[in-house]
TrEMBL record:
SUPFAM superfamilies, sorted: Thioesterase/thiol ester dehydrase-isomerase
Lineage: Bacteria, Pseudomonadati, Pseudomonadota, Alphaproteobacteria, Rhodobacterales
Protein name: Putative domain 1
Transmembrane segments: none
NCBIfam families registered for this protein in UniProt: unchar_dom_1
Pfam families per the UniProt record, alphabetical: 4HBT (PF03061)
All residue ranges annotated as the Thioesterase domain in the record: 49-124
Swiss-Prot/TrEMBL keywords: Hydrolase
Species this chain originates from: Phaeobacter italicus
Length: 144
């Protein structure tokens, strides 16, 4: 299955359907192999001690897989997370953008499974890993 969006088109769609958080995330790469997204970190993403909060890292993983699924199935805003596992591996650098590398492991008619590694920008050691499953809404009768 090819791409339903290019990076710019997908970014525009995310701004349309998730305007409240869309400016937090930047698509840096989108191709047949996967996606690279960046969390634009500011003070609201930090927890005491200056590190990036777990909820911010989880949001990056979730948006990464959501965007990756949409890049394949198109304008289907109601695709939803049905399962998530998250491993925190090391403390991310505070105030440094986080970069997520996502890839699809399975894309079926009803479910998509993706894997994400998250890094502090400039550091090759992952700070977190997540696997997520998304439910894909059924196609409406009479649509392709």
């Amino acid at each position: 299955m090819g791409l339903a969006f290019d990076a710019a088109g997908l970014g525009d769609y995310l701004h349309e359907v998730f305007a409240e958080v869309a400016n937090d995330f930047v698509i840096e790469r989108l191709d047949e192999d996967g996606i690279t997204m960046r969390l634009v970190v500011d003070d609201r993403h930090l927890r005491p001690g200056g590190t990036i909060s777990g909820p911010s890292m989880f949001a990056l993983a979730d948006v990464t897989i959501y965007a990756l699924v949409l890049s394949r199935i198109g304008r289907e805003a109601l695709a939803v997370t049905t399962n998530a596992s998250f491993d925190f591996m090391r403390k991310p650098a505070g105030g440094t953008p986080l970069v997520a590398e996502g890839k699809l492991l399975k894309l079926g008619r009803q479910l998509a499974v993706g894997d994400v590694l998250i890094y502090s920008q400039g550091d090759p050691r992952p700070v977190a890993r997540s696997t997520m499953t998304y439910a894909i809404p059924p196609k409406k009768v009479g649509t392709a």
